[in-house]
Amino acid sequence: MATARPDIARLMGARGARSIAQGALVVDFALYVTRLGWSATLLGVVFALSILFAVAVTTLVGPASDRFGRKRFVLVYEAISVIASLIGLLTQATLPLAFAAVIGGFGRGANGAAGPFAPAEQSWLSGLIEKREFGTVLSLNTAIGFFGMAIGAVLAGLIGAARPMFALPLAASLIATLLLALTPDPPRLPEAARTEGHEAVSKAENSLLWKLAGLNVLNGTGIGLSGPFISWWFAARFHAGAAAIGPALAIAFAAAGIAALTTGRLTRLLGTVRAVVLMRGIGLVSLFALPFAPSFGVALVIYALRSAFNRGTAGARQAVALGIVRSERRGLAASVNTISVLIPRGVAPALAGVLFESGALAAPFLLAGLFQGAYLFFYPRVFGRHDPSRSA
């Protein structure tokens, strides 16, 4: 484990560099293309295509990385990011810029993860640590991403919604490529050793993966009903502008980073599953309270709490997902975990949009709370016996 520490640090350093660029583009990208004349409809289509691209690539990358290794796939992501960033720097033409946004994930943010190649990255990192340390290390990795996103959101205000902002993702990808190139890919078991005599184990793992996907549909639907419209809701409810919303998002990202560190500590005290339930339970209460906030200031505090306790469990939930399978199948598990959240997150905003358009400014949040409450009810019942922090 000691010899792997520098490798872990390099992987986390790559995530930190990416997260700063992603945080800046979350704030500035939509503003930039709006100034170029993009309609809200076009922007929505580009975001939808970006999600579809992510789903397609994630579906393939996880299982493929189990077979061919993790490192090469994450390096492919960095190459794609370099290409997308160069397009953004070199042209304002709609079609190439839209293409770059789709493949580069501009404006969507991924907390510093390697976009649709994240399953390879997660399984790579998990191969460097003991299973009982999954919750702590993956929570730290998540925290680094949130702190980076907060820094990026602040930088976005300094750079402004202008073409030079694409220099940030370009620099981040070059830094990440250097760090990743210096990091070895843990050796994989031979094919025969990975398949021989494991049919019964694989069947049990597959059952848990299906349950994970089902619970993630509940979670992803809840996120999709509330998350994408938060800036719109702040503006509609309290008439807040970009100057107020940008710092609000930075505060929320920083709070999520602190919560991720707290979750990492709680995994050692309570176990990973119990830590998730405790943190998400507080976040659920905040979600129900948010639509009834009497002022922008109060809403900001509640949103920061909700964001912190909800997002701060991302690393711990990754730990549970990766821990329910053997090391040679963690790419598959990471893909299932990502896709089963991503698809409902892409579909649910359509319903939320209809509800918000009708003037029901509280309904999407309350409906989201019901979905996430159901997720929280079933989660410990399904995974309580498979807590990675309790592994020998």
Describe the structure in your own words.
The protein is mostly helical. Helices cover 78% and strands 0% of the residues. The chain is built from 16 helices and no strands. Helix 1 (5-35) runs antiparallel to helix 7. The longest helix is centred in the N-terminal third of the chain and has 31 residues, at 5-35. It is globular, with a radius of gyration of 20 Å. The two termini are 16 Å apart. The model has no long low-confidence stretch (mean pLDDT 87).
Gist of the model:
This protein has helices at 5-35, 40-68, 71-90, 94-104, 118-126, 134-159, 167-181, 191-195, 199-226, 230-238, 242-270, 272-289, 296-311, 314-323, 330-357, 363-383.
Using only C-alpha atoms, the radius of gyration works out to: 20 Å
| Average pLDDT figure | 87
Q: Give the low-confidence spans.
A: none
- Give the biggest beta sheet: none
Shape: globular
Task: State the total count of DSSP E strands.
Answer: 0
What is the structural class?
A: mainly alpha
Instruction: Determine the fraction of residues in helical runs and give it as a percent range.
Output: over 70%
Number of helices: 16
Order of helices and strands: HHHHHHHHHHHHHHHH
The rounded distance between the terminal residues' Cα atoms is: 16 Å
Strand content: under 5%
